[in-house]
């Protein structure tokens, strides 16, 4: 009988749990979806199986505490005893490597900090280069996010989107060597927020490209929370075959920790690995509603593992109309925030120029006039929905295309700004009643 191995990441932010049976991923989820506490740092007991053989932790409490003492932060310990403890960047790297579609590769892990490490480079699972605290691209990006009045460790993606409205006027590289745990204060008090966002985005892209000098292989894995920077990721596509698992941040490290117990490559099929809403959705009814009301919610099947909704917990809309302001109002977001399209795979090349991607990890150049799903710089973070996709989103897209001749829909997560994505059907009912959005 195969062992049940559990991986846990908790104690800092974006806690997660993964359950494996041999090579099979039985479950992987974010804790916030269960507790309804945004970015919850503690796991929920609802995520753990009744019985398991081993439980593994995503980092080393000992080495983390040595750095915390150095930084004047005090000591913290995990809430429970674990059978295995791995290193923070090791579990990030393993989450990417043991789910990748290739074997021989380099891995670049970039995040705020893990124990002492902030950037690591790997040849397969052998570490070949390390950058240590206080030097940290991730910490500085979060500090600038905070300087912009946004939430660090949560709203860096808003900083990335804001960057398209500005110019990289400021040299921020000198800040990399300081301790940015405490933020950067009110530096450049007269700077336009858009220009400050563009400056940190430009610095991140520049430093990411510099790290490529340590790579020797065509296959590349990006891991760590910074791997969610789809704009920067796209700058590497001409040179590498890139894999980024859909949950490259700390929650995804729970998968890395569980997988390292046996150290075997996993059977990665799709990111629909969380809580299951097992209800029938009629694609024809959904499309009829879209044609009449222009938007609706979808809460069906297993929740996505990762921060991005990929059809199972989505708020979708008809992109042929100017619905951006309407959907931003529903989600209580800033009006400048962009939305992403999901598109039938076979029609991607007719509407976008770029590499196809299933998980919204890169941006493509739009070759159409649907402004609702196009950012100010003419790009879009596209989700390609392949013919084998198990989400009901595939069937809805097919029906929408048959009725309208348009093979794409606006797609955003089924949540309100600052709140976790809908998880259960009860969450969906509450969302529908509170925000007057029909949820199928």
Percent range for helical residues?
A: 25-40%
Report, as a whole number of angstroms, the end-to-end distance. Answer: 39 Å
Runs in which pLDDT lies below 50 for 5 or more consecutive residues are none
Decide which structural class fits the backbone.
alpha/beta
Can you identify the CATH class of the largest domain?
Alpha Beta
Average pLDDT rating: 96
How many separate structural domains? 3
Radius of gyration: 21 Å
Categorize the overall geometry: globular
CATH architecture of the largest domain: Alpha-Beta Complex
Structural description of this entry:
By secondary structure, the chain is of the alpha/beta class. It is 29% helix and 22% strand. It has 13 helices and 20 strands. The strands form five sheets. Strands 3-2-1-4-5 form a five-stranded mixed β-sheet. A five-stranded mixed β-sheet has the order 8-7-6-9-10, sandwiched between helices. The mean pLDDT is 96.
List the topology elements.
Elements: E1 4-9, E2 16-21, E3 24-30, H1 32-35, E4 54-57, H2 61-70, E5 84-85, H3 88-97, E6 106-114, E7 117-123, E8 126-132, H4 137-147, H5 156-162, H6 193-211, E9 219-223, H7 230-234, E10 241-243, H8 250-262, E11 272-277, H9 283-293, E12 295-299, E13 301-304, E14 313-317, H10 324-331, E15 340-344, H11 348-351, E16 352-353, E17 364-366, E18 379-380, E19 383-385, H12 392-404, E20 408-413, H13 425-435
Parallel strand pairs: 1-4, 4-5, 6-9, 9-10, 15-19
Antiparallel strand pairs: 1-2, 2-3, 6-7, 7-8, 11-13, 12-14, 14-20, 15-20, 16-17, 17-18
Helix pairs in contact: 3-8, 4-6, 5-6, 9-12
